[in-house]
Specification:
By secondary structure, the protein is mainly alpha-helical. It has a domain at 124-411: Glycosyltransferase (Alpha/alpha barrel), CATH 1.50.10.10. It has 17 helices and 9 strands. The chain has helices at residues 3-17, 36-46, 51-62, 87-90, 106-117, 119-143, 156-159, 168-172, 186-189, 198-213, 218-224, 232-252, 259-271, 310-322, 349-361, 367-381, 401-411, and strands spanning 34-35, 74-75, 152-153, 229-230, 274-275, 280-281, 284-285, 386-387, 394-395. It has a 3-stranded antiparallel β-sheet. Strand 8 and strand 9 form a beta hairpin. Helix 3 (51-62) packs antiparallel against helix 5 (106-117). The radius of gyration is 20 Å and the shape is globular. The chain binds (2R)-3-hydroxy-2-(alpha-D-mannopyranosyloxy)propanoic acid.
């Protein structure tokens, strides 16, 4: 067996060990349920060795879709211990016990990519998913579109980049003094210096309480939730999802009404996230109109969304020059940079997978170099949740599903 074969087998073993029967947990202990965009990325990895099971991953995720079209961030299919907040805190009543917010719609793109591996075999399964994927896209455009055409998040957990510096200014404006008492579980599993702070968690729980008091009604949340930050990552991933969904709909003969309009709106929206002061796509607080001043892994998803930008190409070249294991979750020269703390500096291979797919599709010459760096990182350090971008030190959960999937689908 070559080294590649050995690492590949290890990646398959991780995904199989995290399989809970129809869905894959991110990692044992820390995250014992089905997470939305983790499952989408895991499905890409699973599709490399079991196409049927990859479809099932997406189908199980979509089984949790609410009547509104929203697809939850977490599905609590089976009782588990060791995670906060669980279903009793969220108090939602979708078809499967769940949280009340969504996550970036990578699953739409994953459905297309899985289908393309064997279009004849996947046709019926994709056809059955089409109305659900469409309803989710419509929900995003109805409830998460700002007045400039960008997608915003109402909770840092919805963005997927929980404690990114992107939210700092918007969070500083919120008084969380009414937050209920709660007990964190995450710091029982991993080093607390690598996790969000207590202040971050107070805001997460406070925003959860806001949604719960609105009984998770979208219109009421829009009225009372003070946290609303437009995010390049969410906007790029949604734009990409709509493009892929349009392609699927054309190929399979489904209704395409409004889809071109959505694409036009989002294409305009992403341009409003260009911050000339830092020469990068950046987050913007919708209430103050202020940019966060953050170059993040989300900034580099422009190519994934089909958007080239010479300024981001320059950023990419710089990122490859200043860190051994790019693309970091946050710019190494940024004032909030912390190489250990979660979404404030570490490199997340799963994000590099999405960035790399975009680079490859747009023929950006740096893609092979980026892939080689992540390949070396995973082959030598294993499948942890995230890594120090300078020395590659692994951190967070071990045997992580979307990290293993990144190896299988892209890095190997
Ligand atoms: C992290 O977020 C969860 C909440 O969703 C948490 O910290 O409790 C994030 O990295 C998120 O992007 C990811 O989907 C989740 C599971 O891996 O963990």
């Amino acid at each position: 067996m070559t080294t590649t074969d050995v690492v590949t087998q290890r990646a398959i073993d991780v995904l199989k060990a995290n399989d809970r029967g129809g869905y894959t947990i991110p990692t044992d202990g820390l995250y014992p349920y089905q997470w939305n965009w983790d499952s989408a990325i895991s499905a890409l990895g699973i599709a490399e060795f079991d196409l049927e099971r990859a479809w099932q991953e997406i189908e199980t995720l979509m089984s949790g879709q609410w009547a509104s079209g929203m697809v939850p961030q977490i599905l609590f299919h089976n009782p588990a211990t060791g995670y906060f907040p669980g279903p009793e805190t969220w108090r939602c009543d979708g078809p499967v016990p769940s949280s009340g917010i969504s996550q970036p719609p990578v699953a739409v793109t994953a459905a297309r990519l899985i289908w393309e591996k064997n279009p004849a075999q996947g046709r019926d399964r994709l056809n059955a998913l089409v109305p659900k994927l469409r309803a989710w896209i419509d929900w995003y455009m109805a409830w998460r579109l700002d007045d400039q055409g960008a997608i915003f998040t109402v909770h840092p957990w919805e963005s997927g980049r929980d404690n990114a510096p992107d939210w700092d200014k918007a969070m500083a404006r919120i008084d969380t003094s009414g937050v209920e008492s709660y007990t964190r579980q995450d710091t029982k599993h991993v080093n607390s210096a690598h996790r969000p702070t207590q202040k971050d968690y107070d805001l997460y729980v406070w925003l959860l309480q806001i949604g719960r008091s609105a009984q998770w009604d979208d219109a009421e949340i829009a009225r009372i939730n003070p946290f609303r930050v437009s995010d390049p990552l969410m906007t790029f991933i949604t734009l990409r999802a709509v493009r892929d969904f349009l392609h699927i709909s054309n190929e399979l003969g489904h209704d395409t009404t409004s889809l071109n309009q959505y694409i036009e709106t989002l294409e305009q929206g992403v341009q409003t996230l260009w911050n000339p002061d830092i020469s990068a796509f950046d987050s913007r607080d919708t209430s103050s109109g202020e940019f966060s001043g953050s170059i993040s892994c989300g900034s580099y998803l422009c190519w994934y969304a089909g958007v080239d930008h010479p300024g981001m190409r320059a950023q990419l070249q710089n990122a490859l020059a200043v860190s051994k294991y790019p693309i970091a979750s946050y710019n190494l020269n940024g004032e909030a940079f912390d190489p250990h703390r979660y979404w404030r500096g570490p490199t997340w291979p799963c994000m590099n997978l999405l960035i790399g797919l975009g680079l490859a599709e747009r023929n950006v010459p740096e893609e092979p170099e980026l892939r080689a760096r992540i390949r070396e990182l995973l082959a030598t350090q294993g499948f942890s949740e995230y890594f120090n971008p300078i020395d590659g030190d692994p951190a967070g959960g071990k045997s992580f599903s979307w990290t293993a999937a990144t190896w299988l689908y892209w890095a190997r």
